[in-house]
Design a protein that fits this description.
binds zinc ion, elongated, transmembrane, transmembrane helix, DUF983 domain-containing protein, DUF983, 57% helix, 160 residues
Length: 160
């Protein structure tokens, strides 16, 4: 079943929570990825379609944001506090950054796919009155992730 005609609930936070565990945002049973970062075309459990959901640069942006805010302050603190030998520093921090990046990147992609799916943000007609501002924004937007981020912020603002 396509997301546009889905009968499944599309609440954003439960969808993101299911996706971050690698499960289908819609049903939570099927796998979201068939490889490290390659999403499935359709959920094997509920049939929800994810093949045309494009997270673009959003996951990389989120991963850099998180890893940078974890590694840089840690490195600055450790380097000024412990006075490690140089070989330890040039080994530990790149490995820590690489390990965190490899851990966070698929989860960041899952967050974007789930958010895009839950809000039907791409590839779906926006016929609701509250989508009017998104239509105006997307005409001027050069990047889909900017549109996606805008819609996520709008969704959060409307729910709170
Ligand atoms: Zn599913």
């Amino acid at each position: 079943m396509s997301a546009s005609g889905s009968h499944l609930p599309t609440r954003i936070w439960p969808a993101i929570a299911r996706a971050m565990t690698g499960k289908c945002p819609a049903c939570g049973r099927g796998k979201l990825f068939r490889g490290y970062l390659h999403q499935v075309e359709n959920c094997t459990s509920c049939g929800e379609h994810y093949g045309k959901t494009h997270a673009d640069d959003g996951p990389a942006w989120l991963t850099i944001l998180v890893v940078g805010h974890l590694v840089v302050p840690s490195a600055l603190y450790a380097e000024t506090t412990f006075r490690w030998p140089l070989w330890v520093s040039i080994t530990v921090w790149p490995l820590a950054a690489a390990a965190l990046t490899l851990t966070i990147l698929p989860r960041a992609k899952a967050v974007f796919i789930a958010a895009i799916w839950a809000m039907k943000a791409l590839g779906f007609p926006m016929n609701r009155p509250e989508d009017r501002i998104c239509r105006v924004f997307v005409r001027g937007a050069r990047y889909r992730e900017a549109y996606s981020l805008f819609c996520i912020a709008r969704h959060i603002a409307l729910k709170s």
